[in-house]
Amino acid sequence: MRLPKLFQRLALAAGLAGLPLIAAHAQEPQISIMTGSATGTYIQFGRDMQRLMGQCGHEMDVVESAGSLENFLGVRQRPRTQFGIVQNDVLEYMQTFAAQDPDIARTIKGVRIAFPLYEEEVHILAKNDLQDFRDLAGKRVAIGTENSGTFLTASLMLSLAGLEPAEKLAIAPRDALQQLLTGRIDAFFYVAGAPASLYTGSGVDGSKFHLLPITDDTLRSVYTPSTLAAGTYQFQSDPVDLVAVKAILMTYDYDATRNAYHKQSCDAVSDLSSLISGNLESLKQYGHPKWNDVDLGAIPSGWDVGACVTRGTSSDYQMNCTAPTTTDSDANESYRRSICAVMGC
């Protein structure tokens, strides 16, 4: 199997960057999670985790990004970035190519699983005259920006199905939606946990556009078959058969004995791990609806859970919490009370 040009660029970037920049941070590092676009589910999950960390007195930045590929590299080499949300098929293909290319092997070194999250549906919004996935052949199709999981998933799915669109446009879903509505493209891919806010108030006319069913046997054997319930979106009155990929929260394998930065980052990873594992029911009640689909035991094969995560989920772990310094809104205060009822404050 030939190494895709995208992975070649990523391997080069990782090789030039080396290990995460860890030596220059004498003070407590800023905690960050890399997520996705402003309209995606990743960023909403990131904000839920940000609120959770806030109840422990930690300030955590939620960083917008192009998506999974950028997030993976962010965890690997971006300073003060302890977390990133990545699609499982990105992990699988990184692992596949690591066996063939030493630069890719260096790229994935030290990156670890924090938690499995939820299934992300592959949305393909298309003109109504396209009725099946195979109808994308010869059409103008947007497949997401190059550092996104959408880009990788769309590229893989088209390759697996043996389809060649007339044009494959590497543009973000938000821009692709406008191009579809104005007739400049025929369809666009968007990998996001439903309901995706991109489609809320988007002006999609159900008599002109629909979500393309994905019933191809090959694709449904590689990806997880899924059905989007009727009425998930205003323009979608009937159930739609799709496929999905799992979102995974990734981290780095910090060594708490190495230096102050590693210790403080490991503490942050352990604290968030403890908060998520101990307060999943609160997240399901107050967070994004996709928290209801989270199974913390569904760890993808071939990847190890980080040692700092394991430490944080142990029954005798003591969190490094301080009193929050800001005044809570009513919603946040209610959220805090629910968390405190479980973990104590």
UniProtKB/TrEMBL annotation:
Keywords assigned: Signal
Keyword Nuclease: no
Alphabetical list of InterPro entries matching this protein: TRAP_TAXI (IPR011852)
Gene3D superfamilies: Periplasmic binding protein-like II (3.40.190.10)
Signal peptide range: 1-26
Cited Pfam families: NMT1_3 (PF16868)
NCBIfam families found in the cross-reference section: TRAP_TAXI (TIGR02122)
Protein name: TAXI family TRAP transporter solute-binding subunit
Organism: Paracoccus onchidii
Source taxonomy: Bacteria, Pseudomonadati, Pseudomonadota, Alphaproteobacteria, Rhodobacterales
